[in-house]
C-alpha cells in the first residue's frame, strides 16, 4: 500500500511540474534519472560496503557521480564523508536491504526516467505554446504600461521564463534557490521603491516585470504593481490570494488590479485534477467565510 501511494505521489509531482513548464519537467526527470543511475553505480562499485548512500544529504551530490572534472572529485570526497557519517550513526545499513532487488528496480527507474527525458528533450521554446501565449500577453500589457508580478511555483520555470520572454521595460527574476535574501529584498525595493522607501541610486532602474517564486513572501509591499500573473496554479487557493495581496494592498494608487491565471491544459488536467481541486477549495472558502473578488476564473 505504501509503495502504491509513493508512486501516486511521484506521478503527481511530475505532472505538476509539467503543468508549470516542459523545462521544469525535463530538468526534474533528468535529475531523478541521474540520481537513480548514480545509486546503481555507487553500489556496484563497492558491493562489500556496509552502508547505503541514501538520505536527503546525498540528493544533490548524486547528480554528479559519473563525471570526471575536479569539482566532481570534490563532490565525491564529500560523498565519502557523508557515507562515513552515516555508518557512524548506523543509518541505512546495507544488510537491511534486499540489495539485488533494490538495484534492479533502480536500474529500471533510471532507464524509464531517461526515456521520458529523451521524449521531451527536443521541445524548445519555439514549440512551447504556453510560453507563446505568455509572450503575447506581455506584449499587450507593455503597450498599456503595466508593472507586472509573475509567479511560478518552481525556480526552474522562473529561470526558463527569464531566458525566453522579453518585455519592453526592465525585467528581473528571483528565486530562493539562486538568490540571496538581500538580492531578493533589493528586487522588491526596485519593483516598488516608494512603498519600500527606497531612493534610486546611480545605475539603478525600477523593475517593470518581476519573475519570482513564492520566495517573495506574504506581506511584502509591492503595490506599485498592477498586474499579477500566475504562470502555474498552486494547489492551495489561499496561496493565490496571498500572491494577489502583494500588490492589492493599502497604499496602491491603482483603481484595478488585473490577475491572469494560466490553467492546466485540458488533457493534463484529466490526469492531474489540479483545477478541480482548487475550485473545490475556493467553493469551501466562499461558503464558510465568503470572498470579495474572483480568484481563479471570471465565472466564480
How would you describe what is shown here?
The longest helix is centred in the N-terminal third of the chain and has 24 residues, at 22-45. The protein is built from 10 helices and 5 strands, in the order H-H-H-H-H-E-H-E-H-E-E-H-E-H-H. Helix 1 packs across helix 2 and helix 2 packs antiparallel against helix 4 (99-120). The protein is globular. With 300 residues, the chain is of the alpha/beta class.
* General form: globular
Please give the number of β-strands.
5
Q: Major sheet: order of its strands?
A: 2-3-1-4-5
Averaged pLDDT, please?
Answer: 85
First-residue to last-residue Cα separation: 38 Å
Estimated helix fraction: 40-55%
SSE pattern, N- to C-terminal:
HHHHHEHEHEEHEHH
In DSSP terms (H or I, runs of 4 or more residues), the helix count works out at: 10
Structure class: alpha/beta
Largest sheet: number of strands, sense, barrel closure: 5 strands, parallel
